[in-house]
Protein 1
Amino acid sequence: MVELWDRKDSFVKTFSGGMKRRLEIARGLLHHPKVIFLDEPTLGLDPQTRNHIWDYVKKLNQEEKITVVFTTHYMDEADKVSDKIAIIDEGKIIEYGTSEELKKKAGTESLEEAFLTFTGHDLRVESANSLDRMRMIRSHRK
């Protein structure tokens, strides 16, 4: 299904990042879900692997009628593969619609420009989460 049959006897630790992502998707499909959630499924992958994963995900959506919900920071991917897009800022959905609707509302040519119009152009100060704070405390104790 995800073109890993020839590696069935290999340890996962020997897989490339793209192979691991494909395996994660296959694992998520074992129980034939009606909805699958993918968190940054193509992060750090080469263009060939990214395209392969998106082709596979679109096929799942169309042929198996699985609803796919995914997060991405790659606006070109969202523009290319999404039926509907929710722009989230500081944990809240601030805009929702098709790519064309969002670009029209923002008065921009690209989805990335629309995203920046809705969320602002300033760099964000990211606060540390609880795991980050625990790591900082542990490193200061050494």
Note: The beta strands are 35-39, 67-71, 85-89, 92-97.
Protein 2
Amino acid sequence: MFLNDAATIFAASFIYMHILLSTAYFPPIAWMGIFVNQPSVLIDLWETYPKQSYRNRCRIATSLGVLDLNLPVKKPNGNQTKSKDILIDYQQKWQQLHWKSIKTAYESAPYFLYYQDDIEEIVFTNHSHLHLLNETAILRISKLLGFENPVYYTADFIKPLTHHSDFRFSIHPKSPQFIPTPKYYQTFDEKTGFLGNLSVLDLLFHLGPEAAIYLSKLKMDI
């Protein structure tokens, strides 16, 4: 639900009963597995926006290996900008580039034709803020897979927690993959080998409806 929605969680003491995630652009499979499998997930938009994370980046599989799609953003308050205030930079033609890259990577995947219109619509629908685009993508993909999990946000920044419910900073492109993503068929696996924990788009285009079963079976020590 949107940031100012009445359903936003306000009680900070309630945090310890929830899983914490960052916002994410076409999230990696590990992120999506947590989101659909946990009954109480909060997304923190009050953090100071960090660089080089999944917040504005997704990873797809190409014939040459992993390709990072980085969404250009603007920081109204410089390096002190909160994630909730991050704007999307439309001066750069990233939408055309991202869609072309996604189409080239997955047009031979079994379910690309089935889902391409939904994903293309997400990419080309303009949103002022990064978190609004991310929320739209998360909810649309969840619905396509039969999940009805709502998106809830924290009401303020929560200091990093030492217990195992805080995944805001551990699910990161440069961090070791601590939630295993079992092998499944990928178009270019004979060339590249299996590439784990890519964007949920990879799972969607290759497994179709079975992606829901895959996500539901992820074993997470939470």
Note: Residues 14-217 form one domain.
Protein 3
Amino acid sequence: MNLAIVDVGCGNIGSVAIAFERFGLTPRTTSDPAEIAVADKVILPGVGAAGYAMDEIRARGLVEPLRALTQPVLGICLGMQLLFEASDEEETDCLGIVAGRVRRLDPAPGRPVPHMGWSKLAVDDPAIGLADGDYVYFAHSFACDPVPETVATAAYGRPIPAVIRQGNWWGAQFHPERSGPAGARFLEAFLAS
């Protein structure tokens, strides 16, 4: 399987690559639109700021090539947020693949921001390899609002879409590469899609 990890100059590329290597794959990290277009599966990783990541996507000429992808694509953490229309983080226009907006999480006593740690999921679609009650690892300060494409949710002051699916587009707000057996099952389900 030809698996491309999109290099946008930031993110958790190394840990994502290692997660897929556990399945016997050798992912290719690239920002070449032609290589991304012919990959069987594409990963849009993310750790960082929405504004910087979108500036890098634009500078590398990747906006339209990413929007045009028809093979399965998985956005992880910031990568999922970039699939939406816009983010409150630096008032950023994103890729606009999924309708909706990403907003900052609200801190509260016992609920600091960033949200870093394990949270329990409520799962609406078992085809994503996850089940109700699974715990997965989050590290984020922003999250999208609930959308019709939400197939798994966590609670952190408000409902947090943990997984979205829209056609060939998958998004995980959590970090499957750091979420143990549950994360591995999720990645297996994506690879099988």
Note: DSSP finds six helices and 14 strands in the chain.
Protein 4
Amino acid sequence: MALSKEQIAQRIAKEVKDRYYVNLGIGIPTLVANFVQNDISVEFQSENGILGMGPFPFEGEEDPDLINAGKQTITALPGASFFDSAMSFGMIRGQHVDLTILGAMEVSQNGDIANWKIPGKMVKGMGGAMDLVASAENIIVAMMHTNREGESKLLKECSLPLTGVKCVKKIVTNLAVLEIIDGKFHLLERAPGVSVEEIQKATEGDLVVKGDILEMKF
């Protein structure tokens, strides 16, 4: 059974370690803050100038002045700090973020990522995505394995305008956990009830399968 967006975020939360500084991108990555273990200390950063971001607020408890980079209302943990964009991007460009979690429209087997523009559609700009992929050394992508037409989004080469080149290390989709090694997708885990054959069929890029592939655990 394919994972929901919440389950993708829950699996990625297992990659977050104690004392990490983590940047959460727009979309599925914002959900990760809801699933981090209670026994570890993590600082979530949003590029619009927040360090110490908490989980989403409960309905009726939203503060319209407290938002993330995707303009969603959020909460702030005790000790959170607020600062301008220059300080925020100084943290990113200075490589003070331990883990970056991003959404993507396409990822290539070379580790390239396309997540900011679809040709012919109006967009305001790339935003902070380019800075994040250029500066981060540890990037995990949260995405759907295929598009609405069932076509693979894990490709030999991206067809959409690139955000970054050779920067993605690990991908968690609704079907699998994969790692990019030597220009190929390596299958690490599969979603509960999803077969290796289904993942192979849904992956256009070169997929390496070694040994028994275990189901994800949350």
Note: The chain has a mean pLDDT of 92.
